[in-house]
Amino acid sequence: MQPWVHPSAIVDGGAELGPETRVWHFSHVMAGAVIGARCMLGQNCFVSARVKLGNGVRVQNNVSLYDGVELEDDVFCGPSVVFTNVKHPRAFVSRREEYSATKICRGATLGANSTVLAGITVGAYAMVGAGAVVTKDVAPFSLVVGVPAAPVGWVSHAGERLEFGVADVAVCARSGRSYRLVEGALTELLAEPR
């Protein structure tokens, strides 16, 4: 199935949209942007020329993705998430050659109105709470909240909060997948082969 673009949206020639991707009202995708399959850009989104989105990415209303931002497969950006790409901006100093790479890894969630500063990596399946300001890298599966964002726990692939019991093992209530906390990092325990 071909991508679908609302008549009020602008997709510049040279932008790549994957199959089944939808671009909603008043959004703008610049030439050079690469958007994977089955993505959704909500109303009033902006995607700059040097931005890459994987497959299955959902970007809710009022999100601007600036040069240097990469969202891997299955990332969720809540409404009005803010990205930056320059660490020390000045209106009168050109910093186009200093854009920092910001990477949101596979399956991560950024809550509504959260802010991700330039040069940050948010690990796979991490969850950033609504309104949080991310000033440093976020570990995979970590749950961070607040200003500045700080870790308060761990979440599963399905986004469920994990509670650890015997031997630092937790089971996701939604999926049944098991996890172990080892030296401050979360590891999934793979099921035994049959």
Summarize the structure.
By secondary structure, the chain is mostly beta strands. The protein has strands at 4-5, 10-11, 16-17, 22-23, 28-29, 34-35, 40-41, 46-47, 52-53, 58-59, 64-65, 69-71, 76-77, 82-83, 102-104, 109-110, 115-116, 121-122, 127-128, 133-134, 142-145, 150-154, 169-171, 178-182, 185-189. The model has no long low-confidence stretch (mean pLDDT 95).
List keywords for this structure.
194 residues, mainly beta, nine-stranded mixed β-sheet, UDP N-Acetylglucosamine Acyltransferase, domain 1
Enumerate the strands of the largest sheet in spatial order, edge to edge or round the barrel. 1-4-7-10-13-16-19-21-22
User: Which value, in Å, is the CA radius of gyration?
Assistant: 18 Å
* Relative strand content: 25-35%
Class of secondary structure makeup:
mainly beta
CATH superfamily: Hexapeptide repeat proteins
Number of domains: 1
Helix content: under 10%
Intertermini distance: 37 Å
The total of helices stands at: 0
- What is the name of the CATH class? Mainly Beta
Number of strands: 25
In round numbers, the mean pLDDT is 95
The rough form would be described as globular
Q: Biggest sheet, open or closed, and with what strands and sense?
A: 9 strands, mixed
Q: Quaternary state, please?
A: single chain
User: If classified by CATH, what would the architecture be?
Assistant: 3 Solenoid
